[in-house]
Amino acid sequence: MTDLADQKADARKAAFARRKAARDAGHPAPAARLSEVLAGYRGAPLAGYMPIRTEIDPRPAMTEATAHGPVAVPVITGEGQPLKFSRWTPDGPMRDGPFGARIPLQDDWVVPEIVVVPLVAFTASGDRLGYGGGFYDRTLEGLRARGPVLAIGFAWDAQEAEALPMEATDQPLDLVVTEARILTISR
Hints:
The protein is an alpha/beta fold and about 190 residues long.
């Protein structure tokens, strides 16, 4: 492993522990706060995600958003590929996807303008640490090349790190929504 890969692995290990502790402590998921943010973008195509492991659950906000416009979830199409997003409805039929995330039974592709991004850790400057596959980085880079895209990190406050090891290809967040605040990132 390279030094940067080692640093990221160490940061992930510490962040996973903080995220699990926040979830296990019973902190309320800030879905209402996420809904409040999304209300300002009603009708814009939205991508959420199906939570896995100890990820915070965005589905209540996603469910509310379906009344105003298309909502989709990520589909991994292959290693090293950007994500695609398939339309999701709260009661729609689902199937197992890679890494344990559920995906819609039938693909109905949507190009989102807002992406709610799962994460392991974040910083106040908008850096994000994920699982290490680079899926969201490739995806956000491609979407941003097409036009404006709002990347919203969704996490517990406990997932904030003072600093994270970053690479030139890592895509920043525009907002972070936690149980305590809405953090707008300025660049």
